[in-house]
Amino acid sequence: xxxxxxxxxxxxxxxxxxxxxxxxxxxxxxxxxxxxxxxxxxxxxxxxxxxxxxxxxxxxxxxxxxxxxxxxxxxxxxxxxxxxxxxxxxxxxxxxxxxxxxxxxxxxxxxxxxxxxxxxxxxxxxxxxxxxxxxxxxxxxxxxxxxxxxxxxxxxxxxxxxxxxxxxxxxxxxxxxxxxxxxxxxxxxxxxxxxxxxxxxxxxxxxxxxxxxxxxxxxxxxxxx
Length: 225
What we know:
225 residues; alpha/beta; six-stranded parallel sheet; 9 helices; 6 strands; globular
């Protein structure tokens, strides 16, 4: 008969100590916010501290956070600020413009003579309000805001001021944009709560001039290092 091998008893850990340690580490891991969420929170706080008097203040937002800050308004900094965003995109390939074109927005090229005609412009603005979408005005690398203002005002006197002050979405003032040929979907009775989600975003590669800077929340987009 072959000899019987003696089994070596395995070490048994003391109950409670390792389990408690594991639970503590797990809790710490869960309570630690992700770097992305933390970064957006910092940006939210920074934008929330902006005001009209501090016109030289420009908030920097990483490109990867632009969706949360600009479109979702995570934490509500833009709503708190009260002004529409003016986004400076210095990237050589206009990455913000490219990103926004693939989102649920109405995009207008401020240098495109066809898009800036009164009727296409009116339709784009009306649809953005009707369905609660952002209207993006891309001025690229040229300061054409005065020209764009004139084009908007051709649709309705003082329209750009109404957009910038947000009066356009108050007291059903947007009805000045409705025409009889727009169809039933644009009947004023079809404008429900969606219009409250309307946003006006100005996109450019250059800094805004002083007056426009006072009227907007200026955000400069930076690329991740």
